[in-house]
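Following up on my earlier thread - several people asked me to post the actual chain instead of describing it. Fair enough. Here it is, all 286 residues.
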Amino acid sequence: MLRITDTRTGHLVEIPAAPRRLLRSCVHLPALGAGTDDGTGIGPLHLRVPLIGDVLARTAELNGLQVVTVLTTPELTPDRARALDRVMAVLGIHPPTVIGPHRPEAALGGPADVHVTAGDTDPGDLADGARIEVGRVDTTVPEQDTAAPADGTPTPVDTADAADPADDAPDPLAVRLLLLGRPYGTPVTVTGAALAGAGRTLRDWRRSVADWAQEPSRPIPADLLGQSHAALAEDLDVAAVLALLAEVAGRSDVPAGAKFETFAHLDRVLGLDLARDVGHQRPTGP
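Reply from S.P.:
Thanks for posting it. Predicted structure:
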């Protein structure tokens, strides 16, 4: 069972309503602005909204549901449409069934079960389905980039560390990790230090996953599987799953093979390419 908080009522609702096994999801891209540095008008909030739609679809599929996702957009120039396609691909967002400005019922095959929108926006008349409102993304660099989250939410992304001069080129999936590290309805601040911390987390996890892959496979411990699936099914608590992975990585009581299977399994939802380095370890001998 997959439940999300309908922001119009504040109550958890099951989607889709049982016993139907098809989830119809409509993701609404906010209007594009003209103030972005790259001239495309595509900003971090425009990425976070379809990213949450992607995680919703991945979670539904993990729960055995079929999913149809439609992305509605404002009228886009060809250049902006291509830029949007490229950015979504770079962030590992699965292509929606339809992208366009028109009403989605025909593509969905019926009324939407859930709408994913940006908070403080009006995507139009959404009489049908539950509504997920995605929190804003702040790209203003604060004077001190070391403050912990006000609510104490654990996150594997270390926003306090400065960028390592030896770091490789920035990993686009560090943006994905950073945006997933907070509950979807809360604001996220994107800074250079936060992205550097997310990039280090990805490198560390991928290196560990590659090492664990060399050990005999072991089943995912039942408690870890239950906790992670429950967190995802209860309002898409991806931040709790990331915190769980950070804990598992350091646990000595979980065999390496079980750690590998846990990370690989949950990456089906996270979409962080955590097994990318498997088979590409550097020799450790002389």
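The chain has eight helices and nine strands. That should answer part of your original question.
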